[in-house]
Amino acid sequence: MNQLHIKDGRLIDPASKIDRIGSIYIAAGKIISVTDEPAGFQPTHVIDAKNQIVCPGFIDLSTRLRDMGHSRKANFKSETRAAACAGITTMCLQPDTTPPIDTPAVAELVRDLAKKAGYEQIYPIAALTQKLEGAELSSMLSLKQAGCIAVSNANEPVKNLLILRRALEYAASHDLLLMFRPNDFWLSNNGCAHEGAFSTRYGLPSIPDAAETIALAQCLELVELTGCRVHFGQLSCKRSVIKIHQAKKYGLDVSADAAIHQLHLTENDMAPFDSIYHVLPPLRSETDKQYLRHGLASGMLDSLCSDHQPHDLDAKLGAFPETEPGMSSLETVLPLMLKLVAEKAITLEQGIAALSKNPARILRIKSGALTPGFSADVCIFDPDLDWQVNSDNWKSQGINTPFWGRTLKGRVTCTVQAGRIIHRLEDF
Amino acid sequence: MPDDLQLNQEGKLRHFLTIEGLDKSLLTEILDMAESFVGMSGQKVKKVPLLRGKTIVNLFFENSTRTRTTFELAAKRLSADVLSMSIATSSTSKGESLLDTIRNLQAMHVDMFVVRHAVSGAAHFIAQHTAPHISVINAGDGQHAHPTQAMLDMFTIRQIKKDFSNLRVAIIGDILHSRVARSQIQALNTLGVAEIRVIAPKTLLPAHVETLGVRVFHNLTEGLKDMDVIAMLRLQKERMSSALLPSESEYFKCFGLTEDKLKIAKPDAIVMHPGPINRGVEIDSKVADGPQSVILKQVSNGIAIRMAIMAMAMQKQGLA
């Protein structure tokens, strides 16, 4: 049986408030001890983590691996390799695949593809409505039984508030988590850039932050009405963070994340008409960026997600508004988190918690902590190792990242998923 | 701004995509060169051999009569061979991407593209993806820029007012959707006018419009006071159906330029319009055809300005 001993690393586990040099003992896919060596422990592998940080494997609440209808953009094999190299051991897959995850058969197909790729911890998120059309409810319970961890309508609008109310009520009846990216379809008006000085200057169709905050406020009222557990994903602006904070203070069972690039880039970083910066929600103002950082540091925001969206080159070749939104972002998660720490926006413990303990709590899974009995999901990284984002190092099939060619600090040296080594950097 | 995209290493024009990033001396150089072409229209032989043997393709993804015609005439007067293509608004509906269209034409050894496209950034995209010897002239991209229109407006203003430094200019109408307004504002600021005002209801102004370097007015009477130049914008019919305005008649009542309203501006104020005019919607016929209107002068100047820009862009490519 596979037994792993990770030794001499700096263990950081926000869940148990551990920050010390030590060892982890793993057997049968589970963590069995983080203190003393268990009696009769016979490691098949010993990993020397000296001068490195050992923390829970990262959990990504929003990712897209393409494949199925879009394998020219990426596939499970390429993207799960990218995830492994990024220290990500659990991923939630958005339902807007082709076909969408709105039947148990598709959910099972996702799990099969994950298994074939040798990366098992992919949780499909079920479509909230059939074909994501926002009109009729999906078979949520069957989808849950087929392995879906939550329900969501991804970026597609729900036709009206009555349907959204019923979807929340139905999800609540089956104790399902609803993941919601707030976006008012009408107010966003097919826009592609933040409504501000930049969009004005370049004549780009714009999306006001109110498109997000109004949809968020409406959904929060429905949470109050229905008692559904809702996680708000990919928030992009200051007033959204404030609304989440108020809702939590009021006692609503809600949580929220932001895509990590939103804490680093703003509309001002966008080279004009460079489609690499075309993301939804759009990159917003400096004030918004700073407040997202503040929100994460103060606990108003619970977690960070990659919002990974790999694309083929053609998807980004065109006039800005006509290109497809999204960045390939799994592999920049750790360096961007460490950059927040280096810039003193958050502590290292907060950064790790935002990627492990907190998303695990939201998903209610036994991962995201170095707790005996939990799935042995571990990320080992060297916080000072520089690496260049280039074709030698990059594993995702999508190279649509604004960090291409740049040197980033912090690299994952080893990733363990359910007790199995799924990534090991050469020379480590 | 990708100003380096439109300038070569010596700071000369390679492409002409936007006014942004071009300095006063370059804009003045364009105006001066256009000046030398203006007299030509009256001559018996209306041609110079500056671009003889060159092939220019007018690539219009969006309908236009006036702009296309003046570009065509300008190219012909420079002795270039011109091909004008009107491509249905969505080339992607035919399955061919914008880039494929460009590459195909490039394979036919053309020297210059004049591009009009309904999407902001299209001209930049084409300039970034054409062979280095090809010049791209932006004839209007989405709501972003229409720099040749702005330059012909500057030329017309200079012809009449001589100097920019003391001028007060009002731009009236649908600023939100107007590539003309954005380019005019940049050109006027670069040439150093005293004041630029935009006058429109909030529904037709982009967010934070003041960051463009303009003063904002929602009332025509207040906004027109002391103005030397009044630049009207065309109001598209579809603005009524998208709830931006209640009706043409109400718009005319509030923002339509009539003889009475014109009296509020300086007595020697000039009235401009990029065309085509909606008579009785943004401007009264009496004003459009009146003594202060320079609208037809703008059209004639359009040819000279476009000749100047095409000649300069080709020259700096070392081809002319």
Automatic annotation (TrEMBL), chain A:
Originating species: Candidatus Methylobacter favarea
A single GO BP: purine nucleobase catabolic process
Protein name (record): Dihydroorotase-like protein
Swiss-Prot/TrEMBL keywords: Pyrimidine biosynthesis
Entry's transmembrane regions: none
Ranges for domain Dihydroorotase catalytic: 52-239
Matches recorded under PANTHER family: ALLANTOINASE
Source lineage: Bacteria, Pseudomonadati, Pseudomonadota, Gammaproteobacteria, Methylococcales
GO MF terms, alphabetically ordered: allantoinase activity; dihydroorotase activity; metal ion binding
Keyword Transcription: no
GO cellular component terms, A-Z: cytoplasm
Pfam families assigned to the protein according to its UniProt record, in alphabetical order: DHOase (PF12890)
Top-rank taxon, per record: Bacteria
Residue runs in coiled coils: none
UniProtKB/TrEMBL annotation, chain B:
Aspartate/ornithine carbamoyltransferase carbamoyl-P binding domain residues: 14-159
Catalytic function, reaction form: carbamoyl phosphate + L-aspartate = N-carbamoyl-L-aspartate + phosphate + H(+)
A GO cellular component entry from the record: cytosol
Secretion signal span: none
Residues given in the record as carbamoyl phosphate binding sites: 66-67, 116, 146, 149, 275-276
Keyword flag Kinase: no
Top-tier EC class: transferase
Domain called Aspartate/ornithine carbamoyltransferase Asp/Orn-binding: residue spans: 166-312
Pfam families cross-referenced by the UniProt entry: OTCace, OTCace_N
Source species, domain of life: Bacteria
Molecular functions (GO terms): amino acid binding; aspartate carbamoyltransferase activity
GO biological process: 'de novo' pyrimidine nucleobase biosynthetic process; 'de novo' UMP biosynthetic process; amino acid metabolic process
Pathway: Pyrimidine metabolism; UMP biosynthesis via de novo pathway; (S)-dihydroorotate from bicarbonate: step 2/3
EC code: 2.1.3.2
Alphabetically ordered keywords of this record: Pyrimidine biosynthesis, Transferase
Residues annotated to bind L-aspartate: 94, 179, 234
Keyword Zinc-finger set for record: no
PANTHER family documented for this protein: ASPARTATE CARBAMOYLTRANSFERASE (PTHR45753:SF6), ORNITHINE CARBAMOYLTRANSFERASE, MITOCHONDRIAL (PTHR45753)
Protein function: Catalyzes the condensation of carbamoyl phosphate and aspartate to form carbamoyl aspartate and inorganic phosphate, the committed step in the de novo pyrimidine nucleotide biosynthesis pathway.
Family, per entry: Belongs to the aspartate/ornithine carbamoyltransferase superfamily. ATCase family.
Subunit structure comment from the entry: Heterododecamer (2C3:3R2) of six catalytic PyrB chains organized as two trimers (C3), and six regulatory PyrI chains organized as three dimers (R2).
Protein name: Aspartate carbamoyltransferase
Lineage, opening ranks: Bacteria, Pseudomonadati, Pseudomonadota, Gammaproteobacteria, Methylococcales
